[in-house]
Amino acid sequence: MTTATPPHDAPASPSGAHDAARAVSAARTAQAAWDGLGFAGRRKVLKAWCALILQRSDELVDLIRAETGKTADDARLEVVLAAHHLRWNAVHAARALGRRRVSPGLLMFNHAVEVIHRPLGVVGVIGPWNYPAFIPVGPVSAALAGGNTVVLKPSELTPRTGEWLAATLAEVTGRLRVLHVVTGDGTAGEALCRAGVDKIAFTGSSATARRVLAACADRMTPAVIEGGGKDAMIVAADADLDAAADAAVWAAMTNAGQTCVGLERVYAVDTVADRFLDLVTERAAALRVGDGPDADFGRITLPRQLEVIADQVRDAVARGARAVLGGPQSVTPPYVAPIVLADVPEDAAAVTEETFGPVLVVNRVSSVAEAVERANAGGYGLGASVFTRDRGSGRGVAAGLRAGMVSVNAVIAFAGMPAVPFGGVGDSGFGRVHGPDGLREFTRTQAITSQRFRPPLQPASFRRRPGTMPALVRLVRTLYGR
Ligand code: NDP
Q1: Aldehyde dehydrogenase domain: from which residue to which, for each copy (predicted)?
Q2: Which of 139, 337, 413, 468 could serve as a FRET partner for 50 with CA atoms 20 to 30 Å apart?
């Protein structure tokens, strides 16, 4: 059976809360057959899905743009990343999740041991609107590659992108529907958390993550949480300032700053801070905002975020920050023009809270050590970056940052690497998507031991000989007692 892709102008069906149970039940019905295809069968299907997405990528780009207002290039980048991660999961699942032998250790040498990764069953994926294709495709394809079926709840702002993904996969799988979609607002997401899924993969704000975890608690449904961020860049005295400024402006402003691992704060060492700020301001001032073909970034997708951005900027300026480029007046709904703030108090919301707009805070510090301290001070811990000509010291600085991913002399590099685990600490969440860790998130690990022969000493029996335990203790003392 072939499912037609919904036309772009068709209204998305707001299936709402009551459909979650039905979708989970349909996904559960398909799961055994999907698992039965094995890694090789699923790999074939997922590769074909990837190819179909790329063949029809113009359609997907138009759909993403219509729902989010991002530029064509931002939407294209999203599609490229989605395909890259989907293909990686398809190809690498067998190696990451396949049967592997494990040593039984000296004391149990008479056993053979293998570890397998079995699918959990049905995985619920709740996605955000800012990357409505790329973000869900990560956990969806990882869960599918491991033999699970999936129910996706896209953001209420981007339901048709979610439906398009399910419809294209259905074109490949035919009657076997392994990806189901429930649309609607947060109540549909909460219903999915309570609908008996075997795991939730949530991506969204940290505030919603807390509600998701509360809903999951009733059935002890496990969850992987990809929450918000307040990513920092550290610019050392020896940094290539041109490269750092170029990267900072892109990471802060791409997709209108609506990126979970977007750059929101820079800590530049005193000796180079002024020059860095000049370079950033010059580059940011040249950016074009709008929905025309030459725009560098588009509108703010979530209307209520405009007020959050304006409030943070107003508050920072009122508290003594310098508006080096733009200011509260840059917020002209539905757009926000680039804003660069300097010398912002560290306890201002523009430094502590997610801004999710094209706003960059640049603060000066006396040393890299102080930069690390400030970068680590907040509740979030998602991504970060370090610019220095000494890559070795850059890696050392990176290791001291409380963040899930750190790029040295680049920004957001990890997102384009499908083998690299992605996820945060603290308010940014827990668990990992992408890479082997991301594949294992949607499986249960099972150890199978099988006794090859009966050993001379048998401590695990009430019929053991009187000398067995002393002999065992002697053996362990000989092995580990010195
Ligand atoms: P939200 O937290 O508002 O929503 C995320 C998803 O959760 C949406 O599908 C939403 O539905 C749904 N939802 C809302 N309420 C509930 C509930 N009570 N139970 C279950 N689900 C619910 O995030 P946004 O969509 O606004 O996305 C932006 C946020 O996502 C930012 O904070 C950003 O940093 C973060 N993010 C994190 C990423 C990461 O990998 N760590 C990547 C991308 C974004 P609805 O939209 O219909 O309300």
Answers
A1: 15-448
A2: 413
Best residue among 15, 68, 130, 405 to mutate for probing ligand 1's pocket (most ligand atoms within 8 Å of CB) is: 130
Please tell me if the CB atom of residue 209 comes closer than 6 angstroms to any atom of ligand 1.
Answer: no
Per-residue model confidence as pLDDT tens digits over 18-27? 799 999 999 9
pLDDT higher than threshold 80 for residue 16: no
Residues 164/5, Cβ–Cβ less than 8 Å:
yes
Tell me if 130 CB under 6 Å of ligand 1. Answer: yes
pTM: 0.94
**Measured between alpha carbons, how far is 444 from 137 in angstroms, rounded to an integer?**
21
Provide the β-strand partners of residue 339. Answer: 359
CA distance 114 to 366: 53
Q: What torsion, rounded to 10 degrees, do the Cα atoms 101, 106, 110, 113 define?
A: -20
Q: Which two tokens stand for residue 114?
A: 């293998």
Q: How far is CA 5 from the centre of its chain?
A: 26
**Domains detected in the chain:** 17-228+432-444 (3.40.605.10), 231-416 (3.40.309.10), 452-480 (no CATH)
